[in-house]
Design goal:
Blueprint (H helix, E strand, L loop, with lengths): L4 E6 L3 E7 L5 E8 L3 H14 L4 E6 L28 H8 L4 E5 H12 L8 E6 L3 E7 L2 E2 L32 H5 L1 H8 L10 H22 L3 E5 L8 H13 L6 H4 L5 E3 L6 H15 L1
Parallel strand pairs: 1-4, 4-5, 6-9, 9-10
Antiparallel strand pairs: 1-2, 2-3, 6-7, 7-8
The structure holds zinc ion.
Length: 292
Amino acid sequence: MAARIGALEAGGTTLVLAVGDAKGNIKEQISMPTVEPERVVPEMAQWFADKKVDAIGIGAFGPTVVNPNNPDFGKICFTPKPGWSYYDFLGNMKAGCDVPMGYDTDVNVACLGEATFGCAKGLDSVCYFTVGTGIGAGVMVGGQLLHGMLHPEAGHILLNKLPYDPGNSVCPKHTCCFEGLASGPSIEARWGAKAVDLADRDEVWELEADYIAQAIEIYVTCYSPEKVIIGGGVAHQEQIFPMIRKKFLTYLNGYLSTKELDDIDNYIVPNSLNEKQGILGCLELGRRALEG
Ligand SMILES: [Zn+2]
């Protein structure tokens, strides 16, 4: 009988739970709000136990400890979310459903989902980032999701703030980081409306595309990905992609020449799995945990 794999995509506002198989077929899925962990984690563990899953893959909001060799593996770090700071997420999931578990960040599993089932299938070096309430990046290098001392926090790279930008960074730590200048709350603070209601305002997207292009230039030169995938609300603004590609090539200024860059329309792309890249990545992470 095919293995039953549990997938848990733990976002900052919503928790998505699914059961599926190793081929990426989801058979059942539910979601619940991200309330205090003491209330919701035992309930989730019980749900998976009732479904008799053989393994679970968890993609968690950060910051969190994703290195299995770290004694704090599976714990959430400091966070403003009530009850979650220093919470032993993985340990408490295991207490309620003792099966092999994979654990990584929400953006790393989205990257894994695209590299396993989506537009980056077959590639081993991929950069995925999401522009929404926050900005986070998942990075796969040589087939491995990048962790390092913690995990990438590539939403907080410092960019050149444009002189004609009428807004200010909304990041409490940085006056010119990517998240501070280009996340959903930043767009809303600058223009006085939500991004989704600004679709026809060219100046909004020209500015947004510029910051995204600056970030991609840094990611490409640092990580050398074979594809760059953009998720989150901004990826739904299709008009922004031609602007991003053009500005990115301008910033790169011919410094690199590769076959991937020659095909820029297929190099910088929106996510390809209908917002299922995260949960499908969790499924793959669970499959890998089962294989050991
Ligand atoms: Zn920042």
